[in-house]
Amino acid sequence: MSSLTQRGSTLVQRHQATSAKGAEGGKASNEADEDTYHHEEEDDGESKETRLTLMEEVLLLGLKDREGYTSFWNDCISSGLRGCMLIELGLRGRVELEKTGMRRRSLLNRKVILLNDAPTGDVLLDEALKLIKETDQPETVPTWIELLSGETWNPMKLRYQLRNVRERLAKNLVDKGVLTTEKQNFVLFDMTTHPVTDTTIKQRIIKKVQESVLNRWPNDPARFERRMLSLLYLAHSSDVLENAFAPLSDEDYEVATGRVRTLLDSDPEVQSQKPGCNDLMWAVIAAFIK
Questions:
Q1: How confident is the model at residue 184 (pLDDT cuts 50, 70, 90)?
Q2: Which residues contact 105 (CB under 8 A, 6 or more apart)?
Q3: How far is the CA of 93 from the CAs of 55, 86, 107, 182, in angstroms?
Q4: Cβ neighbours of residue 222 under 8 Å, at least 6 residues apart?
Q5: Domain containing 228: what range?
Q6: Is the alpha carbon torsion for 226, 262, 250, 288 positive or negative?
Q7: For the chain: N or C, fewer Cβ within 10 A?
Q8: Is residue 94 part of a domain?
Protein backbone atom coordinates (compact mmCIF):
# COMPACT_ATOMS: atom_id res chain seq x y z
CA MET A 1 0.00 0.00 0.00
CA SER A 2 2.85 2.42 0.79
CA SER A 3 4.08 2.27 -2.81
CA LEU A 4 0.61 3.24 -4.06
CA THR A 5 0.49 6.17 -1.65
CA GLN A 6 3.94 7.32 -2.78
CA ARG A 7 2.83 6.99 -6.40
CA GLY A 8 -0.27 9.07 -5.65
CA SER A 9 1.84 11.79 -3.97
CA THR A 10 4.16 11.85 -6.96
CA LEU A 11 1.16 12.26 -9.24
CA VAL A 12 -0.06 15.30 -7.30
CA GLN A 13 3.41 16.88 -7.50
CA ARG A 14 3.49 16.27 -11.26
CA HIS A 15 0.06 17.83 -11.69
CA GLN A 16 1.04 20.94 -9.72
CA ALA A 17 4.29 21.30 -11.61
CA THR A 18 2.76 20.85 -15.04
CA SER A 19 -0.37 22.98 -14.55
CA ALA A 20 1.76 26.11 -14.74
CA LYS A 21 3.12 25.12 -18.15
CA GLY A 22 -0.16 25.38 -20.01
CA ALA A 23 -1.81 22.84 -22.24
CA GLU A 24 1.31 20.77 -22.81
CA GLY A 25 1.78 20.30 -19.09
CA GLY A 26 -1.89 19.47 -18.66
CA LYS A 27 -1.58 16.72 -21.24
CA ALA A 28 1.41 15.23 -19.42
CA SER A 29 -0.51 15.26 -16.15
CA ASN A 30 -3.49 13.50 -17.72
CA GLU A 31 -1.21 10.83 -19.16
CA ALA A 32 0.33 10.37 -15.71
CA ASP A 33 -3.17 9.94 -14.23
CA GLU A 34 -3.97 7.30 -16.85
CA ASP A 35 -0.69 5.47 -16.18
CA THR A 36 -1.27 5.50 -12.42
CA TYR A 37 -4.85 4.27 -12.91
CA HIS A 38 -3.69 1.26 -14.92
CA HIS A 39 -0.81 0.55 -12.51
CA GLU A 40 -3.37 0.30 -9.71
CA GLU A 41 -5.41 -2.13 -11.79
CA GLU A 42 -2.36 -4.29 -12.39
CA ASP A 43 -1.53 -4.24 -8.68
CA ASP A 44 -5.01 -5.67 -8.09
CA GLY A 45 -4.08 -8.63 -10.30
CA GLU A 46 -6.25 -7.74 -13.29
CA SER A 47 -4.86 -8.70 -16.67
CA LYS A 48 -5.58 -6.65 -19.78
CA GLU A 49 -7.89 -9.35 -21.07
CA THR A 50 -10.19 -9.24 -18.05
CA ARG A 51 -9.74 -5.65 -16.91
CA LEU A 52 -13.07 -4.36 -15.61
CA THR A 53 -14.28 -0.85 -14.90
CA LEU A 54 -15.71 0.12 -11.52
CA MET A 55 -19.19 0.09 -13.06
CA GLU A 56 -18.74 -3.45 -14.30
CA GLU A 57 -17.40 -4.65 -10.95
CA VAL A 58 -20.32 -3.13 -9.04
CA LEU A 59 -22.83 -4.61 -11.49
CA LEU A 60 -21.16 -8.00 -11.30
CA LEU A 61 -21.40 -7.96 -7.50
CA GLY A 62 -25.12 -7.23 -7.82
CA LEU A 63 -25.95 -9.85 -10.46
CA LYS A 64 -27.45 -13.17 -9.44
CA ASP A 65 -25.14 -15.80 -10.92
CA ARG A 66 -27.73 -18.14 -12.41
CA GLU A 67 -30.64 -15.76 -12.90
CA GLY A 68 -28.49 -13.10 -14.57
CA TYR A 69 -30.23 -9.98 -13.24
CA THR A 70 -30.02 -7.68 -10.21
CA SER A 71 -32.56 -7.70 -7.42
CA PHE A 72 -35.89 -6.11 -8.37
CA TRP A 73 -35.87 -4.41 -4.96
CA ASN A 74 -32.54 -2.68 -5.51
CA ASP A 75 -33.29 0.97 -6.28
CA CYS A 76 -29.79 2.20 -5.36
CA ILE A 77 -27.61 0.65 -8.04
CA SER A 78 -28.69 3.05 -10.79
CA SER A 79 -27.25 6.16 -9.13
CA GLY A 80 -24.32 4.11 -7.79
CA LEU A 81 -23.26 3.18 -11.32
CA ARG A 82 -23.30 6.86 -12.32
CA GLY A 83 -21.09 7.65 -9.34
CA CYS A 84 -18.69 4.97 -10.57
CA MET A 85 -18.52 6.70 -13.95
CA LEU A 86 -17.54 10.03 -12.41
CA ILE A 87 -14.84 8.40 -10.30
CA GLU A 88 -13.49 6.53 -13.33
CA LEU A 89 -13.27 9.76 -15.30
CA GLY A 90 -11.59 11.47 -12.36
CA LEU A 91 -9.01 8.74 -11.81
CA ARG A 92 -8.26 8.67 -15.54
CA GLY A 93 -7.51 12.40 -15.57
CA ARG A 94 -10.49 13.40 -17.71
CA VAL A 95 -12.32 15.58 -15.16
CA GLU A 96 -11.58 17.20 -11.81
CA LEU A 97 -13.20 19.50 -9.25
CA GLU A 98 -12.71 23.20 -9.76
CA LYS A 99 -9.94 24.75 -7.69
CA THR A 100 -10.82 26.92 -4.71
CA GLY A 101 -9.39 30.18 -3.47
CA MET A 102 -8.68 31.28 0.07
CA ARG A 103 -12.24 30.43 1.10
CA ARG A 104 -12.44 26.68 0.66
CA ARG A 105 -15.82 25.43 -0.47
CA SER A 106 -17.15 21.99 0.38
CA LEU A 107 -16.68 19.08 -2.01
CA LEU A 108 -20.38 18.98 -2.82
CA ASN A 109 -20.46 22.64 -3.83
CA ARG A 110 -17.50 22.55 -6.21
CA LYS A 111 -18.14 22.16 -9.94
CA VAL A 112 -16.89 19.32 -12.16
CA ILE A 113 -14.42 20.71 -14.71
CA LEU A 114 -13.35 19.04 -17.96
CA LEU A 115 -9.59 18.39 -18.16
CA ASN A 116 -9.21 16.22 -21.23
CA ASP A 117 -11.84 15.03 -23.71
CA ALA A 118 -9.66 12.27 -25.20
CA PRO A 119 -11.62 8.99 -25.55
CA THR A 120 -11.18 6.48 -22.73
CA GLY A 121 -11.92 3.41 -24.85
CA ASP A 122 -15.13 2.71 -22.93
CA VAL A 123 -18.37 3.68 -24.69
CA LEU A 124 -20.29 4.63 -21.54
CA LEU A 125 -17.43 6.66 -20.09
CA ASP A 126 -16.96 8.45 -23.40
CA GLU A 127 -20.67 9.23 -23.57
CA ALA A 128 -20.63 10.67 -20.03
CA LEU A 129 -17.50 12.64 -20.88
CA LYS A 130 -19.20 14.08 -23.96
CA LEU A 131 -22.19 15.20 -21.89
CA ILE A 132 -19.92 16.91 -19.36
CA LYS A 133 -18.14 18.66 -22.20
CA GLU A 134 -21.38 19.83 -23.84
CA THR A 135 -23.10 21.11 -20.70
CA ASP A 136 -24.09 24.78 -20.74
CA GLN A 137 -22.44 25.43 -17.39
CA PRO A 138 -20.39 23.35 -14.93
CA GLU A 139 -22.38 21.31 -12.41
CA THR A 140 -21.58 19.76 -9.04
CA VAL A 141 -21.06 16.04 -8.45
CA PRO A 142 -24.50 15.49 -6.83
CA THR A 143 -26.14 17.27 -9.76
CA TRP A 144 -24.28 15.16 -12.31
CA ILE A 145 -25.34 11.97 -10.54
CA GLU A 146 -28.96 13.13 -10.73
CA LEU A 147 -28.65 14.17 -14.36
CA LEU A 148 -26.94 10.99 -15.56
CA SER A 149 -29.43 8.77 -13.71
CA GLY A 150 -32.46 10.74 -14.95
CA GLU A 151 -33.57 11.75 -11.45
CA THR A 152 -33.68 15.47 -12.23
CA TRP A 153 -37.00 17.34 -12.11
CA ASN A 154 -35.87 19.73 -14.83
CA PRO A 155 -37.30 18.55 -18.19
CA MET A 156 -34.68 20.67 -20.00
CA LYS A 157 -31.95 18.50 -18.46
CA LEU A 158 -33.33 15.09 -19.46
CA ARG A 159 -30.97 14.94 -22.41
CA TYR A 160 -28.14 14.29 -19.97
CA GLN A 161 -29.61 10.96 -18.83
CA LEU A 162 -27.60 7.85 -19.69
CA ARG A 163 -30.10 5.15 -20.61
CA ASN A 164 -29.97 1.33 -20.41
CA VAL A 165 -26.73 1.49 -18.42
CA ARG A 166 -27.09 -1.91 -16.75
CA GLU A 167 -27.94 -3.62 -20.02
CA ARG A 168 -25.02 -1.98 -21.81
CA LEU A 169 -22.62 -2.89 -19.00
CA ALA A 170 -23.87 -6.46 -19.11
CA LYS A 171 -23.21 -6.58 -22.86
CA ASN A 172 -19.67 -5.33 -22.21
CA LEU A 173 -19.21 -8.20 -19.78
CA VAL A 174 -20.61 -10.61 -22.37
CA ASP A 175 -17.98 -9.36 -24.83
CA LYS A 176 -15.31 -9.95 -22.17
CA GLY A 177 -16.51 -13.52 -21.66
CA VAL A 178 -17.75 -12.98 -18.11
CA LEU A 179 -21.50 -13.21 -18.82
CA THR A 180 -23.74 -14.82 -21.40
CA THR A 181 -27.13 -13.78 -22.80
CA GLU A 182 -30.40 -15.66 -22.31
CA LYS A 183 -34.14 -15.03 -22.56
CA GLN A 184 -36.35 -15.78 -19.58
CA ASN A 185 -40.14 -15.83 -19.47
CA PHE A 186 -41.81 -14.06 -16.54
CA VAL A 187 -45.43 -14.97 -17.44
CA LEU A 188 -46.41 -11.44 -18.51
CA PHE A 189 -43.22 -10.58 -20.35
CA ASP A 190 -39.91 -11.92 -21.61
CA MET A 191 -36.69 -10.47 -20.26
CA THR A 192 -33.12 -10.63 -21.47
CA THR A 193 -30.86 -11.89 -18.70
CA HIS A 194 -27.10 -12.28 -18.38
CA PRO A 195 -26.05 -15.25 -16.20
CA VAL A 196 -22.44 -15.46 -15.05
CA THR A 197 -20.34 -17.86 -17.11
CA ASP A 198 -16.83 -17.06 -15.84
CA THR A 199 -17.28 -17.38 -12.09
CA THR A 200 -13.52 -17.10 -11.46
CA ILE A 201 -13.56 -13.39 -12.33
CA LYS A 202 -16.50 -12.66 -10.05
CA GLN A 203 -14.92 -14.70 -7.26
CA ARG A 204 -11.71 -12.74 -7.73
CA ILE A 205 -13.60 -9.49 -7.17
CA ILE A 206 -15.35 -10.91 -4.10
CA LYS A 207 -12.04 -12.11 -2.68
CA LYS A 208 -10.44 -8.75 -3.39
CA VAL A 209 -13.24 -6.95 -1.53
CA GLN A 210 -13.08 -9.35 1.40
CA GLU A 211 -9.32 -9.13 1.77
CA SER A 212 -9.36 -5.34 1.62
CA VAL A 213 -11.30 -5.17 4.89
CA LEU A 214 -9.75 -8.24 6.51
CA ASN A 215 -6.14 -9.21 5.75
CA ARG A 216 -5.15 -5.97 4.00
CA TRP A 217 -6.98 -3.45 6.17
CA PRO A 218 -4.76 -0.31 6.38
CA ASN A 219 -6.64 1.51 9.21
CA ASP A 220 -6.40 4.84 7.36
CA PRO A 221 -8.59 5.40 4.25
CA ALA A 222 -5.82 7.55 2.78
CA ARG A 223 -3.60 4.45 2.59
CA PHE A 224 -6.14 2.51 0.54
CA GLU A 225 -5.56 2.01 -3.18
CA ARG A 226 -8.02 4.45 -4.75
CA ARG A 227 -9.91 2.03 -6.98
CA MET A 228 -10.38 -0.42 -4.14
CA LEU A 229 -11.60 2.29 -1.80
CA SER A 230 -14.00 3.53 -4.47
CA LEU A 231 -15.29 0.00 -5.02
CA LEU A 232 -16.04 -0.43 -1.32
CA TYR A 233 -17.93 2.84 -1.03
CA LEU A 234 -19.85 2.53 -4.29
CA ALA A 235 -20.69 -1.15 -3.77
CA HIS A 236 -22.13 -0.18 -0.38
CA SER A 237 -24.05 2.76 -1.88
CA SER A 238 -25.37 0.46 -4.62
CA ASP A 239 -26.54 -2.05 -1.99
CA VAL A 240 -24.43 -4.90 -3.39
CA LEU A 241 -21.56 -5.04 -0.88
CA GLU A 242 -23.47 -7.49 1.27
CA ASN A 243 -23.22 -10.03 -1.57
CA ALA A 244 -19.43 -10.03 -1.22
CA PHE A 245 -19.60 -10.48 2.56
CA ALA A 246 -22.30 -13.18 2.63
CA PRO A 247 -19.87 -16.15 2.25
CA LEU A 248 -17.74 -15.02 5.24
CA SER A 249 -17.79 -16.74 8.61
CA ASP A 250 -19.76 -14.97 11.35
CA GLU A 251 -16.55 -13.69 12.95
CA ASP A 252 -15.08 -12.34 9.71
CA TYR A 253 -18.45 -10.88 8.74
CA GLU A 254 -18.57 -8.84 11.95
CA VAL A 255 -15.03 -7.57 11.37
CA ALA A 256 -15.73 -6.71 7.73
CA THR A 257 -18.98 -4.84 8.36
CA GLY A 258 -17.43 -3.03 11.33
CA ARG A 259 -14.58 -1.76 9.17
CA VAL A 260 -16.98 -0.65 6.47
CA ARG A 261 -18.80 1.36 9.14
CA THR A 262 -15.45 2.93 9.99
CA LEU A 263 -15.07 3.99 6.36
CA LEU A 264 -18.60 5.40 6.30
CA ASP A 265 -17.80 7.45 9.42
CA SER A 266 -14.77 9.03 7.72
CA ASP A 267 -15.10 12.70 6.80
CA PRO A 268 -14.61 13.10 3.02
CA GLU A 269 -13.66 16.75 3.50
CA VAL A 270 -10.79 15.76 5.76
CA GLN A 271 -9.71 12.81 3.62
CA SER A 272 -9.65 14.88 0.43
CA GLN A 273 -7.02 17.19 1.91
CA LYS A 274 -4.49 14.41 2.49
CA PRO A 275 -1.55 13.98 0.07
CA GLY A 276 -2.25 11.86 -3.00
CA CYS A 277 -6.03 11.97 -2.61
CA ASN A 278 -8.43 12.65 -5.47
CA ASP A 279 -10.92 15.44 -4.74
CA LEU A 280 -13.50 14.24 -7.24
CA MET A 281 -13.43 10.70 -5.88
CA TRP A 282 -14.13 11.99 -2.38
CA ALA A 283 -16.84 14.31 -3.70
CA VAL A 284 -18.66 11.30 -5.18
CA ILE A 285 -18.25 9.43 -1.90
CA ALA A 286 -19.54 12.45 0.04
CA ALA A 287 -22.59 12.61 -2.23
CA PHE A 288 -23.59 9.08 -1.21
CA ILE A 289 -22.78 9.13 2.51
CA LYS A 290 -23.92 12.70 3.31
A1: confident
A2: none
A3: 17, 11, 18, 37
A4: 5, 271, 274, 275, 276, 277
A5: 47-289
A6: negative
A7: C
A8: yes
How many other C-beta atoms can be found within 10 angstroms of the C-beta atom of residue 85? 25
6 is a domain residue: no
CB neighbourhood size of 180 (10 A): 15
Cα–Cα dist 119/110, whole Å: 24
**pLDDT tens-digit map of 61-84:** 999 999 999 988 898 999 999 999
What is the C-alpha to C-alpha distance for residues 60 and 185, in angstroms, rounded to an integer? 22
Dihedral over Cα of 174, 175, 178, 180: its sign: positive
Q: Which residues contact 188 (CB under 8 A, 6 or more apart)?
A: none
Express each pLDDT in 233-281 by its tens digit.
999 999 999 999 999 999 999 999 999 999 999 999 999 999 889 999 9
pTM of the model: 0.84
Phi-psi map region of 71: left, alpha, beta (phi>0 left; psi -120 to 50 alpha): beta
With a CB cutoff of 8 Å and minimum separation 6, the contacts of 12 are: 275, 276
Q: What is the number of domains present in the chain?
A: 1
- Per-residue pLDDT of 30-73, as tens digits, reads 554 555 555 555 555 555 557 899 999 999 999 999 999 998 88
CATH code at position 139: 1.10.3630.10
pLDDT, averaged across the chain:
85
Q: Residue 11 falls within a domain, yes or no? A: no
Task: Report whether 253 contacts 260 (CB < 8 A).
Answer: no
